[in-house]
Structure formats: structure tokens, C-alpha cells
Design goal:
about 300 residues; hpI Integrase, Chain A; three-stranded antiparallel sheet; 15 helices; 3 strands
Length: about 300
């Protein structure tokens, strides 16, 4: 038995002692690992895009230490999750809240199938961290400073950051982008496997094309290999740049429908026929809107 396994066994034993019950009942013997897999399978069966997010958080923050615990053990020893939440909160307070919410959902899902599970949730002793909505759009007077920092990065990373600022793409969308998605003839970029589960295209302005040129020499396939692991020291990156793109568009008076079409947002309450007409008949309008945004962004950045 290695050190990690010994630690898990010791934690499990502590939970049993705390519960005053050395062995769980037969029907309550489902482990957190098994219950999580069942919950994720149920999300996937319902077409929920959150399944991957749930799997990732659980794999990182809970399953390594508590995957072999039974749900009954976790319910009977609420201090385990209280302490673990505090541990994660030291560095990632928001992630700590999310993973505990997921654990609660996993437990509720299992309880519907096994009525013998204890009524108390494993997170009953957890006190959630207070979360303040982040206003993450880059102020217009910070564009020059941001450009200077970006220019210290390798060309490929410069291209990645500039592209996200100029298009408002989500991080995952930019990371999955391939050279075959870039159509020089139609001057457009196809964005696939989006958060909304749809594919959409955006106009490619000269500024966007210039950003992509920084990514050359062209590698076959993905344009930004390894981008997911990049942790450049920038005050504004990732989703901040998406918010910034939308902030610039709003400041220019670009209407909401065009902003949503340019960033792949879902269009709740708008008929499909109207969306189709806006895309087909308003193509030049979308292109003009994208040019306006690119021109303003380039102007705010200053020297390029």
C-alpha cells in the first residue's frame, strides 16, 4: 500500500468512527466515485453541456481523496467536507463553492435511487464563500498597457490574446480553432462546438487577419496547440476579453441582436425565421459591425 492509499484508508476509517458505524449497510455502500459517474451519465443522457465541467471539477478536487468513500460515510461525517471546502477556498474560493454544489447534486441524484441513504447532505456543515460578480471588461484606458504586456509574449500567444479581444470568442472556442476553420476567400471564421452546442461564423476583418498572421508558420490542425495551459501574466485575459469585446460593441451602439450573432450567444425569444433573415439579409450589416469594433479596438490599443 502506498502513502496515498494509506491516507485514503485512514480518512475512511475516521469517517466510520465519527459516524459510530464501522461498516455501511449493503444498500448504502455506493461510493462517491460510482455515484459521480452515474450522475454525469444522467447529465449526458439529457444532453447537458455541464457534464464535462462536472467531471473535471470532481476529478480535480474531490475524487482523488474521497472517491472511495461511501455516500453514507460522507453524510455521517460532515466535518470532512467542511474542512475540505476550507482547504480549497484558500486558493480557489469560487471553485470550492462549485465543487460542493456538485457534490450536493450527486447526493440528491443518488438519494432518488436509494431511499436508505441518510437524509443529511455531506455538505451540511459547509459555509459557502461569498461571491461578488466580477466586472471583468477591460477599461478603455488600460488597452495600451495591455498591448505592451501582450507584445512581450511569444508570437503565437500574442495571436491568441489578440484574436480573443478582436472576436469575443470563448476560450474553449479559440483553443479548438483549426486552420481549416479560417476561410480566406470569404473572409470568415467558423466557430464550432460552442457552449450553446451550435456552429456559427463571424466576419474576419483585416485586424483579425493580422492577428492570425502572428500564429504563423501554420501548423496543420489546431491553430493554438497547448493554449489551455497558458497562464500569461495579464490582468485581462480569457473571458475578460469576451466581456471587453461586448463592452466596445455596446459603446459603439451595435444592436443586441448583432452582438449576440457575433459572439454566438443563444437567442432566446427570437424566432428562427428572424434570425435567418438577420444573417442572410443582414450579412453586410454584421460585417460592418465587426469592422467598427475592430477599428475601435485597434485605436484603443494604439501602436500595433
Amino acid at each position: 500500500m502506498n502513502v496515498a492509499d494509506a491516507r485514503k484508508e485512514a480518512l475512511q476509517h475516521a469517517a466510520r468512527v465519527a459516524a459510530g458505524r464501522p461498516q455501511p449497510g449493503k444498500r448504502t455502500a455506493i461510493t462517491l466515485e460510482a455515484a459521480t459517474a452515474d450522475y454525469i451519465a444522467s447529465l449526458e443522457a439529457r444532453g447537458k453541456k455541464s457534464a464535462r465541467f462536472v467531471a473535471s471539477l470532481m476529478r480535480i478536487h474531490l475524487l482523488p481523496d474521497f472517491g472511495r468513500f461511501t455516500l453514507a460515510e460522507l453524510s455521517d461525517a460532515p466535518a470532512l467536507m467542511r474542512d475540505h471546502h476550507l482547504k480549497i477556498s484558500k486558493h480557489k474560493p469560487v471553485a470550492a463553492n462549485r465543487v460542493m454544489s456538485i457534490l450536493s447534486a450527486v447526493y440528491r441524484h443518488a438519494s432518488r435511487l436509494d431511499r436508505s441513504l441518510p437524509a443529511a447532505s455531506p455538505i451540511s456543515a459547509v459555509r459557502f464563500n461569498r461571491e461578488t460578480p466580477k466586472q471583468s471588461a477591460m477599461p478603455f484606458d488600460k488597452f495600451g498597457e495591455w498591448r505592451e504586456r501582450v507584445e512581450t509574449l511569444p508570437p503565437l500567444r500574442q495571436a491568441y490574446r489578440r484574436l480573443m479581444l478582436l472576436t469575443g470568442m470563448r476560450g474553449g472556442e479559440a483553443q479548438r480553432l483549426t486552420w481549416s476553420d479560417v476561410n480566406v476567400r470569404t473572409r470568415s471564421i467558423t466557430i464550432r462546438a460552442t457552449k450553446t452546442g451550435k456552429t456559427y461564423s463571424v466576419p474576419m476583418t483585416s485586424a483579425i487577419a493580422s492577428a492570425l498572421k502572428l500564429a504563423r508558420p501554420i501548423h496543420e490542425g489546431v491553430i493554438f496547440p497547448g493554449a489551455r495551459k497558458w497562464s500569461d501574466a495579464l490582468m485581462y485575459k480569457g473571458h475578460d476579453l469576451r466581456h471587453t469585446f461586448l463592452s466596445v460593441a455596446a459603446d459603439l451602439g451595435i444592436d443586441e441582436l448583432q452582438r449576440r450573432l457575433l459572439t454566438g450567444h443563444s437567442l432566446v425569444g427570437i424566432s428562427q425565421s428572424y434570425i435567418t433573415r438577420a444573417v442572410v439579409e443582414g450579412g453586410p450589416g454584421l460585417r460592418a459591425a465587426q469592422r467598427q469594433i475592430s477599428k475601435r479596438v485597434v485605436g484603443l490599443l494604439g501602436r500595433t
